[in-house]
Design a protein that fits this description.
The complex is a heterodimer.
Chain A (H helix, E strand, L loop, with lengths): L13 H6 L21 E6 L2 H11 L3 E2 L14 H6 L15 H13 L6 E4 L2 E4 L13 H20 L3 E6 L3 E5 L5 E2 L15 E5 L2 H18 L4 E6 L13 H21 L5 E4 L1 H6 L17 H14 L30 H5 L3
Parallel strand pairs in A: 1-2, 1-5, 5-9, 9-10
Antiparallel strand pairs in A: 3-4, 6-7, 6-8
Helix pairs in contact in A: 2-9, 4-5, 4-6, 6-7
Chain B lengths: L1 E7 L3 H10 L6 E7 L2 H4 L2 E4 L2 E4 L2 H8 L3 E3 L5 E5 L5 H7 L3 E2 L16 E2 L2 H13 L2 H10 L6 E4 L15 H9 L2 H16 L3 E3 L6 E2 L3 E2 L28 H15 L5
Parallel strand pairs in B: 1-2, 1-6, 6-9, 7-8, 9-10
Antiparallel strand pairs in B: 3-4, 4-5, 11-12
Helix pairs in contact in B: 1-9, 4-5, 4-8, 5-8
The chains are: A alpha/beta, B alpha/beta.
Chain lengths: ~350, ~260
């Protein structure tokens, strides 16, 4: 008997597409509409999972951009220290960008040519509220912070002029914002620096429509830099380390990821050939993997999970995973054994847990 | 009486010549061990003694190539690249906001704007790799005695226009000399710990990054006899008057009860 499912491929069926398939080698889960080759100039940004994506792409020989490479020094800092200073994590020293709103704010700042941040303090040191984790020692003065932010905006803006594909990993819907200005922060005030003031700082939990609207605005702004720019959006499979929603962290995580997944899917569907949705989230959280892709603590993704994600991405684009380290602007950078550590501010929430 | 071992590269000559000129001035017993940097780099630690791989050089300059550390109350490392040169060379690649006035002054070609804190970390890393820091770590493995590192003197003010010290002139002209000197002292303190940095005696300074000529002119080469003067256009070494002030500092720090 004929029916609508009769001629569908194996991937359309749970039994063959998932249950009986090797979780590390899923076939047919991603059919790219946005081409990526070795010559494609890619910019990466997003939540901490995006660090893995950028590194794997660079290792595969893709031209991952770096607007702010480590400076040339007589004695290079170790890879670990460079990461602590925000180098080599993403295509710019913007640190983790967890929400679409944060990404939008950064692009708006660049387009307007004026820093729009706040100075947070910790002791006598000053921190850029929009990237508090790229200066581990903090800064001397607000003037220093603003000068460095201007240089950062300029470097990232110039890079965007030459970006072919922007890869953005959505991480969170929950965030903290300045009630008066609407400025959304990457971390809650007081976690790395700054002081939490309920009268000044409010909790936000973005809904599907808001994330979708932000993604549309991001695309419009990116295409103002380069009208041919395309996007690949993905959702981080890393769970929330804590929720301020009032609910349980597990339901908050599910809700957050559902919102991001829905917004990203709708966004990609609305821009065929211009925006791809790449299923990082699905590959890692695949029930058939029985949690094997998650590290101890069931939150961070194990290297095998990253490899599974990138294998799908690279195979779909006809690229080959590589072992070579990401190209560096500076020779003599010491390579640490523990080279794949991910810098993640939201982990600090755990450290500050009462 | 406190016993000091003072070792170093060519910069140890200032201290050695000062001590030779006035041996009774300091209430300490001093043994000197001088050698070029490459030879100092050949030192290893064996059974609590410094043993020179470049034995011939050490024998020629010091009459010995094995120096047991036991019996010394403190070890002093003189010069050995713990120098403002290290700090200024970092500024070939980076500069911090506010280093030059006005703040919007253009950055030099190849120079990246970074935080002052990152400059300090880069200078620290550079000093950790310097000969003086490597020797301090080596010696710390063989003795519990305090280790003090005396900074390599800043270049003579008269050398301001000379190519080797162009970075010092630029620091003064652009207005960040005082700040980079401060960064150097902080970074050296971090890089050498638990050894202690002894900065250049303040009375020898001409501004933040130069040495007054009276403490540079007449410096001698590191030889066994210590009688060969440096050429007149040597702006990098200090003389016995400078060395005497450093010895004063050392005694004040290491043997205060005897000073």
């Amino acid at each position: 008997m004929d029916h609508p499912y009769a001629s569908l491929p194996a991937g359309a069926f749970w039994s063959t597409g998932t249950a009986a398939a090797a979780p590390a080698a899923l076939h047919g889960i991603f059919a790219p509409q946005v081409a990526v080759t070795g010559e494609t100039r890619i910019t990466t940004a997003g939540s901490c999972f995006a660090q893995h994506i950028g590194r794997a792409l660079a290792r595969a020989g893709v031209a991952v951009q770096d607007a702010e490479p480590p400076p040339a020094l007589p004695v290079a800092l170790s890879e670990e220290r460079l990461r602590a200073w925000g180098y080599g994590l993403y295509s710019g020293r913007y640190g983790n960008i967890y929400t679409a709103r944060q990404m939008l704010q950064l692009l708006q700042e660049i387009a307007e040519g004026t820093p729009r941040t706040e100075a947070w303090s910790r002791g006598l040191r000053v921190f850029d509220a929009l990237r508090p984790n790229v200066e581990p020692e903090g800064l001397e003065t607000e003037a220093e912070m603003l000068a460095l932010r201007e240089a950062h905006l300029l470097a990232v803006g110039r890079m965007l002029l030459e970006t072919d594909v922007f890869v953005f990993t959505l991480g969170l819907t929950e965030a903290w914002a300045n009630r008066a200005t609407g400025l959304v922060y990457p971390t809650a005030p007081g976690v790395i620096a700054g002081a939490y003031d309920p009268a000044s700082h409010g909790f936000v939990n973005f809904r599907v429509a808001e994330v979708r609207a932000d993604l549309e605005a991001i695309l419009a702004l990116l295409r103002a830099f380069n009208p041919a720019m395309r996007m690949i959006v993905t959702v981080s499979p890393v769970s929330l380390s804590a929720t301020a929603s009032g609910g349980h962290v597990l339901t908050a995580t599910t809700a957050s990821k559902a919102v991001l997944r829905a917004a990203a899917g709708g966004f990609a569907a609305a821009h065929p050939g211009v925006v791809d949705y790449f299923p990082s989230f699905e590959i890692v959280t695949n029930p058939a993997a029985r949690g094997a892709f998650f590290a101890e603590g069931a939150r961070e993704v194990r290297p095998e999970g990253v490899a599974a994600v990138m294998a799908v991405f690279l195979a779909a684009h006809g690229l080959v995973a590589g072992e070579a380290p990401a190209p560096r602007a500076v020779a003599r950078v010491e390579v640490e054994e523990d080279g794949d550590a991910v810098i993640c501010e939201d982990l600090l929430l755990d450290a500050f847990r009462k | 009486m406190t016993r000091l071992l003072i070792l170093g590269n060519s910069h140890v000559a200032a201290l050695k010549s000062a001590h030779a000129a006035e041996p009774g001035r300091w209430p300490v017993e001093v043994d000197f061990l001088g050698a070029p940097g490459g030879a100092l780099d050949s030192l290893t630690l064996q059974d609590g003694a410094l043993v020179a791989g470049a034995a011939e050089v050490f024998e020629r300059l010091n009459g010995r190539a094995v120096v047991p550390l036991a019996g010394y109350d403190a070890v002093v490392i003189a010069g050995c690249e713990i120098s403002m040169f290290r700090a200024l060379s970092v500024l070939r690649g980076v500069i911090w906001p506010g280093a030059v006035a006005p703040p919007e002054a253009p950055v030099r070609k190849g120079q990246v704007l970074v935080s002052r804190a990152l400059v300090e970390e880069a200078v620290t890393a550079s000093l950790q790799a310097a000969l003086g820091a490597r020797l301090a770590r080596l010696i710390a493995g063989g003795t519990d005695a305090p280790i003090v590192v005396t900074q390599q003197p800043n270049p003579c003010w008269l050398g301001e226009g000379a190519a080797p010290v162009a970075a010092f002139l630029r620091a003064r002209q652009l207005g960040y000399a005082e700040e980079i000197a401060r960064i150097f002292r902080t970074a050296a303190g971090r890089a050498l710990a638990p050894a202690v940095l002894l900065p250049q005696p303040p009375e020898t300074l001409r501004g933040p990054v130069f040495t007054r000529p009276v403490f540079s002119q007449g410096s001698v080469r590191l030889t066994r006899e210590m009688k060969a003067a440096h050429d007149g256009d040597d702006f990098l070494h200090a003389n016995a008057a400078y060395g005497a002030l450093v010895l004063d500092q050392l005694v004040a720090v290491l043997a205060p009860a005897e000073a």
